[in-house]
Amino acid sequence: MAPTLALVGATGAVGTVMIDIVNARESVPWGDIRLIASPRSAGKKIVVRGEERTVQALGPEAFDGVDVAMFDVPDEVSAQWAPIAAERGAVAVDNSGAFRMDPDVPLVVPEVNAGAIADRPRGIIANPNCTTLSMMAALGALHREFGLRELVVASYQAASGAGQAGVDRLYAELAAVGGKNVGVRAGDVREALAAAGLTDDSPFPAPLALNVVPWAGSLKQDGWASEELKVRNESRKILGIPDLRVSATCVRVPVVTTHALAVHATFEREVTVDGAHKVFAAQPSIVLQDDPAAGVFPTPADVVGNDPTYVGRVRQAVDFPNTLDFFVCGDNLRKGAALNTYEIAEVVAREFA
Predict the structure, then answer these.
(1) Where does this protein have coiled-coil stretches (predicted)?
(2) What is the mean pLDDT of residues 281-288?
């Protein structure tokens, strides 16, 4: 009998993308698909696989008979309800940060470490942070071939990484600074935002329109941002390299959706641009766009809405042995969140075949 899938957080931003992904699949392994959300969203009607389904309120009984439950809810909600789903017999696949570094919860990118899915003592599987995910398909493929040793990353993160509030704020700021000559003098952008009443309640610590902000997340020890520590800790866990040397600088940029990263990766074995091209070209989840002479390289505006990871600007770092530099783009709401969560769920579904 085909397994039952539950989508918790079905009416949220990433939950909506998950439904789009399920609807776009040629076939799915599920017998029934159950939509779950907060009580205020209960009763809403959403079409999934051609059938109108009613959103159920989140509660213990909502997981009865569920085999796989995908969670796209805030950390505190996942922390409470994913264990309840597991107690009721479901495998919980969680997109929040609640369980990522729990040693009893595998942190999974299916094309990198799908084998970790089987070892889930708590009945929970974690989905990585969208920034880490945006580069992981590329790094995982290179690591298998050349052995990753060191990683230096600068991320350029879209406003949607801060949720709908981030998107709304960026649009509001862009409208406020739309006049000519704004930004040619220090203070212009802040003055334009103040004139539009945009002085409070921003999810960003500085104006994002016509600007870049070298900060993402919350302040941690020694001046590190939480997003930067996630890149380090999650890369180590996913790749199975606990002593991997990692340094990350996370930057918020005025892009609505799709994260980009500049990656400087050092390997144990000799690596060349041609060798890296062959590795990337062999991966079905990677699109190689690397012809700078013709102006061909990935950008967020061209990648948004697509499932694969896009890679370009592959260069051999002449002054650093066994080192490559490259640029990666990935839609942070698709592969960076919804798609990877769903791909994990599909792997689990095979256990019911």
Answers:
(1) none
(2) 97
Count the alpha carbons within 13 Å of 145 in the hemisphere toward its beta carbon.
Answer: 19
Which residue ranges make up each domain of the chain? 5-127+338-350, 132-158+213-330, 164-196
Nearest to 125 by CA among 341, 350, 351: 341
Of the candidate CATH numbers 3.30.360.10, 3.20.20.190, 2.20.25.90, 3.30.70.100, the domain formed by 132-158+213-330 belongs to 3.30.360.10
SS (H, E, C) the chain: CCCEEEEECCCCHHHHHHHHHHHHCCCCCCCEEEEEECHHHCCCEEEECCEEEECEECCHHHHCCCCEEEECCCHHHHHHHHHHHHHCCCEEEECCCCCCCCCCCCECCHHHHHHHHHCCCCCEEECCCHHHHHHHHHHHHHHHHHCEEEEEEEEEECHHHHCHHHHHHHHHHHHHCCCCCCCCCCCHHHHHHHHCCCCCCCCCCCCCCCCCECCCCCECHHHCEHHHHHHHHHHHHHHCCCCCEEEEEEEECCCCCCEEEEEEEEECCCCCHHHHHHHHHCCCCEEECCEHHHCECCCHHHHCCCCCEEEEEEEECCCCCCEEEEEEEECCCHHHHHHHHHHHHHHHHHHHC
Q: What is the pLDDT of residues 225-282, one digit of tens each?
A: 999 999 999 999 999 999 999 999 999 999 999 999 999 999 999 999 999 999 999 9
Say whether pLDDT at 169 is over 80.
Answer: yes
pLDDT tens track for 81-107:
999 999 999 999 999 999 999 999 999
For tokens 């040629």, name the residue. Answer: 26
Q: Are 195 and 207 in contact (CB under 8 A)?
A: no
Across the range 150-160, mean pLDDT stands at 98
Residues with catalytic annotation? Answer: 130, 259
Identify the CATH class of 5-127+338-350: alpha beta
Residue whose C-alpha is closest to residue 59's, from 78, 86, 76, 38: 38
